Amino acid sequence: MINLLKAGKGILSSGRITGCLWLLIILLGFPLLNTCTSDTDKPTVKLEIRNHLFNPSEVAIPADTEVKLVIYNRDSSPEEFESYLLNRKKVIMGNSKAVIFIGPLPAGEYPFFGEFHPKTAQGKIIAQ
Amino acid sequence: MLLTSVMVVLREVLEVALLLSVLLAATRLLELRARWFYIALLLGGCFAVIYGENLAKISQAFGGVGQELVNAGISIFIYILLIVVAVLLLVNWHKKHYKLLTMQFVMLLAVTMAIMREGSEIYVYLTSFWLHPPLLPSVMIGALLGAGIGYSLSALFYYLLCGLSQRYTLGISCIFLTILAAGMSLQASQLLIQADLLPAQEPLWDSSRLLEENSIAGQLFYAISGYEATPTPLEVVVYVGSIVIMLGIIAGVYYRISRD
Prior knowledge:
A: alpha+beta; five-stranded mixed beta sheet; about 40% strand; globular; B: 9 helices
């Protein structure tokens, strides 16, 4: 353990590399501090999961607009909301809700599914 | 249920497995013992259970984006750890036995973090079937199959890396570390966009006709390089930036040690 601590100290003192890493942390961390934007002005769309089905299974949203998606999981089992085209992935525990921001999207159809029950839990976002 | 279970587990396992194979190949390259690896497996497993148990609470934290924040944090942390691994690998290639213990500790941290994140999803998935005993056997068999396929693929990848001629091993390991690391920061940026903490933009291109993300090749490519068929401009900048920063640091260190 002492050796590990010594080793840890060693790497902290290895000058230039550490400097670069700090720069990196600051660069990556900065946007987080900078963008505490409010989402009140974004349109909200609600859907729910019940018996491993999305309801509604087709959701129309305005094209080229960022939308706040609120998904209520009414089942007791967890689900993972996932969409390849939307680049979204989030575990939603049983009897809870999740917030996922999507878009802005060009007009078109964007399928999503529940990864834990993909046979039934299918749906799509229609941007128009 | 069997096939779903195979796919859920395989996809999560793959994301960790490639990282594991590259780090294990680095371990072998430096003739280190793989003890750190077993500790990381154990710790990662424990933390995965803890994270999975608390996922409901974590998800609701920070206005409902706690899950994204924690996962993005883990990704950025792994990115930084992989830079340290690449640098130490390079230094040790030229000067034997330089901070080897640190290197093992850093690899242990990276693997523990990765297993914690992906393992928690598997844990949440599998434990949801405790309440449905009739489904349990097929889900468990599927999970074992998925884990087995993931394990085989990473073993194959590991032996490919180890089988390379010594001249190329270092370079190729550094390249894979860089690609995997950039994939991590890409994931982080995506999660922060999903949480509305980074600006959302329209996708820059759509290469899903060329290579679909849900195809087998797409999934493999995703596991290696974080492939996205529809990245936003910011994601592309983060990805390219991460590669440039990491290669820059590697090149800088290489220049310094070859000058000494």
